[in-house]
Amino acid sequence: MENSNTENLPFDPGDFSIVPARSFDELSVGEVFRAPSRTLTDAHASAFQTVSCDNHPIHYDVEYAKRYGHEAPVVHGLQVLAFTAPGATLLPHYFGNIFISFLELSCHFLKEVHSGDTLYPSLTITDLNPQGETGVVTTKVTVYNQKSELVLEGQHKYLLKR
């Protein structure tokens, strides 16, 4: 609950934040930022197929997928990667106005994901590299499924003001 003294102040949308913003130097290696878990449905896969224009039958044709050794159509890898978007977590809210850019990303797809799987994405700060008036934050990204299997692992880098 906020201090009742704020009730007399005019509301300023510029001061509205979900979490208190922090400076680059207030971030710590080892901090973990989790995204909410999400169970994928056929609707998610269809929406991503529409947006990505990836119409390969491995993603929607049950018999095609089975013919090539898959138990079910395979969720688009880039859709799984999208669950590691920093905005799916509170991380960019902690960055506040010090965020400059998303520099790079990499990932390895380790296990197939299917409709009905529940994904658990997280970002862990692994490196903080100050560079004068800016700094680079490196995060390890992971996505686990409901069976505790690591389905995606990778890295993000962000450039921040110091």
From TrEMBL:
Residues 29-143 form the MaoC-like domain. It comes from the Bacteria. InterPro entries: HotDog_dom_sf, MaoC-like_dom, MCH/BMMD. SUPFAM superfamilies: Thioesterase/thiol ester dehydrase-isomerase. CDD domains: R_hydratase_like. This is Dehydratase. It comes from Chryseobacterium daecheongense.
